[in-house]
């Protein structure tokens, strides 16, 4: 007996949902096996995203090298990872103090990271520092610190660890960056400049190390929403129609757990470029290429409301 045509669409939806669910479960299972025994370095493991990454890769059986500027926070993360871990399935993480704002220490940091296992399979560069102010109010000292953390730090560490990857003709470098590495917005001059520099460096690196079998990935995301609870509602200030429209479509950023999951999937599937953004920032990227004058006008108008800048 043939199914009524009215039932065909719901049936197809159910089948598609089932296939999608099975696919996700299979990929989740494979993600653990693919990183097993891999030496994985996380440059800022004590951040929200870094901690989520550490949990996923640790559960997957990776040999973690957790980096961060605070020893107390690293030890706390270490304890939380091993408390319920099965020593037969996981490895105890190794801890390394890393502060990209102290570039003079980088040579020693690189040597310490290499000494842990002698090589690195996956390097996840997720360290970042932000600054927000008009151009004329940002000091040269702040400019330099932002560049050190967001550009010189990741690029220097990557250069130092490449010699452990090239002879083995294997390795994966992941730059967790901002969409502002591709799209600059007002009041983020130092931050956007550092992200543009990092994006360009790793784009060049991708082509240069391809012959050695080394994968270079960039994950560009919008602002990270690390909130744990919904704040009490307050009377909203009066906004222009444009500001109200944008605010209504950008109420949430990228959750640390979602970004960490994307990092894991990027490593497993060897994706080279990923963009985690809401529709409006994505449209802005296209406008930057196709209709730059229009985008510049929109950004200039948005300075008064600062809605675009808050949500990217």
Fold and architecture overview:
With 312 residues, the chain is of the alpha/beta class. It is built from 11 helices and 7 strands. It has a 7-stranded parallel β-sheet, with helices on both faces. The termini are far apart.
Oligomer: single chain
**Residue windows where pLDDT falls under 50 for at least 5 positions:** 229-236, 242-251, 307-312
Mean pLDDT: 85
Instruction: Please give the alpha-carbon distance between the first and last residues.
Output: 54 Å
Please describe the biggest sheet, giving its number of strands, its sense, and whether it closes into a barrel. Answer: 7 strands, parallel
Task: Say how many strands there are.
Answer: 7
Set down the secondary structure blueprint.
Elements: H1 5-34, E1 39-42, H2 48-59, E2 63-68, H3 71-82, E3 94-97, H4 106-117, E4 122-125, H5 140-161, E5 171-178, H6 189-209, E6 214-221, H7 241-249, H8 256-269, E7 273-276, H9 279-290, H10 292-302, H11 307-310
Parallel strand pairs: 1-2, 1-4, 2-3, 4-5, 5-6, 6-7
Helix pairs in contact: 2-8, 4-5, 5-6, 9-10
């Amino acid at each position: 007996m043939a199914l009524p045509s009215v039932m065909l669409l719901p049936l197809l939806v159910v089948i598609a949902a089932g296939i999608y669910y099975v696919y996700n479960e299979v990929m989740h299972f494979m993600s653990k096996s693919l990183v097993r025994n891999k030496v994985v370095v996380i440059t800022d493991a004590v951040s929200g995203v870094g901690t989520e990454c550490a949990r996923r890769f640790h559960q997957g059986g990776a040999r973690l090298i957790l980096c961060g500027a605070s020893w107390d926070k690293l030890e706390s993360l270490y304890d939380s990872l091993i408390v319920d871990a099965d020593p037969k399935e996981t490895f105890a993480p190794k801890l390394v103090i890393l502060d990209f704002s102290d570039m003079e220490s980088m040579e020693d940091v690189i040597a310490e990271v290499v000494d842990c296992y002698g090589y690195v399979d996956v390097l996840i560069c997720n360290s970042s520092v932000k600054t927000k102010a008009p151009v004329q109010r940002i000091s040269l000292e702040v400019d330099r610190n932002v560049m050190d953390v967001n550009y010189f730090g990741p690029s220097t560490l990557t250069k130092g660890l490449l010699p452990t990857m090239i002879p083995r003709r294997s390795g994966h470098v992941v730059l967790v960056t901002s969409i502002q590495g591709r799209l600059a917005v007002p009041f983020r001059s130092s931050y956007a400049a550092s992200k543009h520099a990092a994006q360009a460096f790793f784009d060049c690196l991708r082509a240069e190390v391809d012959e050695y079998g080394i994968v270079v990935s960039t994950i560009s995301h919008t602002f990270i929403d690390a909130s744990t609870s919904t704040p009490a509602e307050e009377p909203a200030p009066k906004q222009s129609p444009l500001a109200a429209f944008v605010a209504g479509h950008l109420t949430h950023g990228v959750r640390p757990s979602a970004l960490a999951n994307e990092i894991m999937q990027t490593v497993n599937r060897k994706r080279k470029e990923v963009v985690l953004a809401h529709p409006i920032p994505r449209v802005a990227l296209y406008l930057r290429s196709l209709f730059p004058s229009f985008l510049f006008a929109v950004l200039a108008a948005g300075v008064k409301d600062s809605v675009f800048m808050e949500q990217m």
